[in-house]
Amino acid sequence: MRTLLAGLVALAMAGTAGADDAVAPPPRVLPSDAPPLGLLPPLGFYRKSAYEVWQNLSVDRQGYWRARVILTPNGAFYRYNGQPFPWTTTQPLLYAPYMPYATD
Questions:
Q1: Residue 77 and residue 53: Cα distance in Å, rounded?
Q2: Tens digit of each residue's pLDDT (9 = 90 or more) over 42-61
Q3: In the chain, where are the structural domains located?
């Protein structure tokens, strides 16, 4: 066992003796994918309010919460997804023709 260990140490020493003569190649410049310092994105973020979902709802004539309908000269549509609301002439009590408490 001692002979094996001594042989391994001698082999390791012989490998490092020739390394002093070697010359390292000059460093190369790698291309950078990072944007220039003037074009960094902003570090902040926008946090949605927990109450923002209520902007898409409105109270109907019976006091229940329903999807808010926006009435425009081009037709009525749901505020949350923009789909048309086809019942403006047949069932006008399903929506309010105004937008109360509009904040945006």
A1: 17
A2: 677 778 888 888 888 888 77
A3: 53-94
Retrieve residue 42's tokens.
Answer: 């902003």
Q: What one-letter code names the amino acid at 6?
A: A
Does this model's pTM top 0.70? My answer is: no
Token pair recorded at residue 8: 């391994």
Task: Provide the 8-state DSSP code for 52.
Answer: G
The residue that leads in pLDDT, 91 or 15, is 91
Are 66 and 94 contacting, i.e. CB atoms less than 8 angstroms apart? Answer: yes
Is-contact 78 68, C-beta < 8 A?
A: yes
The stretch 63-90 carries a mean pLDDT of 86
3-state secondary structure 38-53: HHCCCCCCCCCCCCHH
From 78, 76, 74, 100, select the one nearest 88 (Cα to Cα).
76
